[in-house]
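On clarity, I found the account of how folds are encoded harder to follow than it need be. Since the whole study asks how a given chain folds, the encoding of that fold should be made plain. For the editor and my fellow referees, an illustration may be useful. An entry of this sort, consisting of the sequence and the corresponding C-alpha cells, reads as follows:

:::
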Amino acid sequence: MPSEAAASGCPFSACSSCSPPPGEAVDPRNMMPVFPQTPAAAQSTGLSKERATSSIPMADEPRNWMYPSPQQFYHALLRKNKGAEADAMDAVVHVHNVTNERTWNLILDWERMHQHRCPTPSLLRFVGRQSDLSFGAWVSSYRMAPFDRHDWFVDRCGLKTVRYVIDYYDDPHSGADDGCDISIVARPAVDSLGALIDRLRRPGWQAKRMWAAVRGGGSGDGQP
C-alpha cells in the first residue's frame, strides 16, 4: 500500500503537465512526482505542511484522496516555472481544493444514473491534458478556450472504469457560491456505447428527476 506521502498528487493539480527528470519517482495514479514537505532553496516564508482530506474516495485504498499542502503546492509551481508567491499559497490551495470538490460533485451527478448498481463510485486515477483540446472545448474555443483539461477515471464499483473529460474555464461570471471564478464542464468521454447512451439519455433523466422533485416524489435520482 502506498504511503500517505506517495499520494501527494490530487485530481486538479498545479503541475498537471510536469515532466519529472529521468529516474525520479512518480505516482502511477497521476503520473506526477512526489513533492517534498521541506522548504525550497530560495523560500523565505514558512508554509504549512498540513494536508486536507478530500471527499473523493480512492478506488484502490479504503480512504479518500488527500490534497497537497501549501508547501507541496509551492514546489509544484516552482517545477512548472510559474510565478510562485509563498504568501499566496493558502489562497491558491483553497481554490485548488474547492475546484476539485466541484469537479467530483459534477461527476457524481452523472453517476447517479447508475446508483442502483453502484452507490459509491470512486476515483481510480487521473491525468492532466492541458495541451489537448477536447472536442467540446474545440467547438467553443472561438468564444473561450479552457485553461486546463483533465481526464478522470472513475471506478464504478468494480463493474467498469469510466473516463470523464473535464474542461476548466476562467469565468468571472460563473456565479459560483464558493467565490471561485471558474466554470467546469465534466462529462463522460464518448469512448464506449454505454457512455454514448448516458450522454443521450441524460436530458430526459434530469427532466424526470426535476419533475419528481416538484411533485414531492423525492429527488428522482434512480434509474429513469
